[in-house]
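Look at one such:
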Amino acid sequence: MVIGALLAVVLPRDPTGSDDTIALSEQRWSDLLRAEERSLTRAPTKEEQGALLDRHLSDEIMYRESLRLGLADDDQAVRKRLIDRARAVARGAAEPPNDEVLERYFGEHKDRYSAQARVKIDYVYYAVDRHDAGPSELVTLKEQLDREPNRSLEGLGEIANLTRSPKWITHRELSQVLGPTVADVAFSAPLKTWEGPTSSAFGSYLVRVQEREASRAASFAEAREFALADWVRERGQVRERSWIGAAVGRYRIKLPEGLRWQPSP
């Protein structure tokens, strides 16, 4: 009785009382779009709206299927857990491929496993909201550092969310920590010279590139575990989409005016 009461609260009901109808109201669709906009910090594109609709309806079908299969009978289930359990049933346990199959898969997706270009940098940083005179201070400091290349950086500027000790870092990682403008400088500037001041939304910087490595293709041995994880994940996704395609016929889908949905292949 308790489980039944919980499901009555959690499960969205169709106003007609039919369990085989999945109805997406205008209000619910607006709520989903607003949540997606908050997540992206911008309005979703048409393609992203389509992907959002696909995720919502696929999850709803997974939820209904989990109830049909009796997966909630022994569980004080919440919606997401039931969806995940149904998804696990749909994907099943993939039989690991032999190395011949996996190496062929690796060859088809070799670019995915390239080792990214990376750099080691030194930097001096002034936060935009704490040092209004940061850029001018950095101009003077750059002149001093150019004259004294071995000078310690201890106590200069502020510490950003990046260790002062040079370590390998990719363009994407550096963009997230110091901003894309600084990352662009780090991946194009000559080695061993101070560049800047460079400004970003985070503040103002001097940057010196210690070392740089170009991107390179990974060997099968280096990428084997990553390729295996991708192979298993993709096969599971194929089985899941097939399962949803077979299950969707059991439901009547009601959508707001103008919305169309075709389950992803």
The mean pLDDT is 80. Strands lie at 21-23, 118-127, 169-170, 194-199, 203-213, 252-254. The first strand starts at residue 21 and ends at 23. The first helix runs from residue 2 to 10.
